[in-house]
LytR/AlgR family response regulator transcription factor (Pedobacter vanadiisoli), 242 residues
Amino acid sequence: MSLRCLIVDDEPLAHGVITEYAKDIPFISIVGHCYRATEALFFLSNKQADLIFLDIRMPKLNGLDFLRTLQHKPLVIITSAYEEYALESFDLAVCDYLLKPFRLDRFLKAVNRALELYQLKKQNVTTSDIEKTTPKNGKQISLKVDKKHILVNVEEIHFLESLGNYVKVWKNNEFLLTPRTLGSFETQLPADYFIRIHKSFILNKKYVDYLEGNTIVLKNGQQVPIGKNFRGIIKPLLNIDD
């Protein structure tokens, strides 16, 4: 299996770095180079890409505005020198955010994440669509799984994990995959249970066992990372003492 990848960046050096890294990864195939987002629009109107490596600050049309114009979005990994666009990017359901300059090991982690999502989509793994009409203070949410509608107790959800254009809704050691953004859950789930602890994770506080470094360990042994921009609010909200 190979991911057809398009590089969209106004810096030739960035194209060189990604191309060089891709040589060592057998499932990555670079099929196009665009130096403007407007060029990428023309490319995608004629050819297909499974994954885009996308810069943000580019002339005429920036990367995020380009992403908003796409009706059928490929997987996207942001490659930017500016970290302030991270939250906005993840609200657009990007797969990962690479902060320039990035090393091969970080690049590999990002493309492995993209491959995982691509395989889930191709294999038609059971997906769910949590209906947006669910009241924020409701004790149950409706999940659409294939052609079935089931009710899940909110309290049974351990945490939610963003995965590109999808969110994993974890119940114990199993998850349901739903095509939604993490931000849409944040406004829906009851705040007395759930807290956002990372740009890619929302946690149910009742399942927390202990805090170790930058990781929260759950009672079932699962580990959830704490984002550096969220660490300051974690301890008081989880009633953890220094």
Remarks:
- The first strand starts at residue 3 and ends at 8.
